[in-house]
Amino acid sequence: MYIHYLYYFRTLAECQNYTKTAEQLHITQPSLSYAIGKLEADLGCVLFDRNGRNVVLSACGRTYYEYACEAIDALENGKKAVAGQKEHQEIRIGATKTMIQSSYLSWFLADYGQPCSVHSYRSSSLIYEDILHAQLDVGICLKHKGKSFQQFLFYERDVLAITGKGHPLAALSEISLTELLQFDLVFYKPSPVYDRIREIFPEDDRLATCTFQEEYIDIISYAANNQRVAIAVEDALNYDTALYHACRIRQEELNFNLYLTIRRDLPKYSAAYRFCQHCRTIPGRE
């Protein structure tokens, strides 16, 4: 039996007409009749019954149709899987500037060993948008609440409050978010951390006194010189521990872990999905 006979059989079962089926398959009608005859001879049964100028599946034909379709689908999926394994095209990865500059991401890319290009973004929302529009294959971004993406935990990180050594917080190793609001806070602009805190405490007037600085400003030295507290995720802050003190903020809602993010409709044989699975299984990643 030739595999293409299965395609002929399935098409005839759906068209129910030899002439239309031959046209759709771009073969002659005698070739189609020969293929169906060979199938019936191999199986030892009649697959089609005549219905005027058309044909319909016999009882045996209906049974065989289900298995033929499964076989064809399996073959097609196999071809796609092999094609996916042969892919060597560049994987486009979107991440924030701080993650791009970190050795953590570089380590994963080096271990993966396939061509990748990394693109810098100011926010996770822009990364989500470009993934949906196929401008990126993989994003490294915050948790998304919608159903458009598959996400895999990539990097756990704390939100820190950093002060000068003379500040009252310098005696603490961690603090609750409620306790933190009694101090004058400094954020980068834009600040997802501030936005999240505002969601948690929408009516708290103390947030109106917060100060915002552009990304190029050293908010740690600014905060220390003005008896304020610099707030940001840990990988966004570089500081001298001899001069400044970092205090971890206790608050489950302040989840700023980063996730490998791809479109939910991507199959498991896609290069983007395989990249995510590779990163998750690297020994020692924890």
What do you see in this structure?
- The protein is α/β, with parallel strands linked by helices and 286 residues long.
- 41% of the residues lie in helices and 23% in strands.
- It has helices at residues 3-15, 18-25, 29-43, 59-85, 97-101, 103-112, 124-132, 177-180, 192-200, 219-225, 271-280; strands at residues 48-51, 54-57, 91-96, 116-121, 138-141, 149-155, 159-164, 174-176, 185-188, 211-213, 229-233, 244-250, 258-263.
- The strands form 3 sheets. A 6-stranded mixed sheet has the order 8-12-7-11-9-10. It has a 5-stranded mixed sheet with strand order 4-3-5-13-6, with helices on both faces. It has a two-stranded antiparallel sheet with strand order 1-2.
- The longest helix is centred in the first third of the chain and has 27 residues, at 59-85.
- The model has no long low-confidence stretch (mean pLDDT 86).
- Binned, the helix content reads 40-55%
User: What is the general shape?
Assistant: elongated
Strand content: 15-25%
CA radius of gyration is 30 Å
Largest sheet: 6 strands, mixed
Query: Oligomeric status of the shown chains?
Result: single chain
Span between termini: 52 Å
Number of helix segments?
Answer: 11
Strand order, sheet with most strands: 8-12-7-11-9-10
User: How many runs of DSSP E, i.e. beta strands?
Assistant: 13
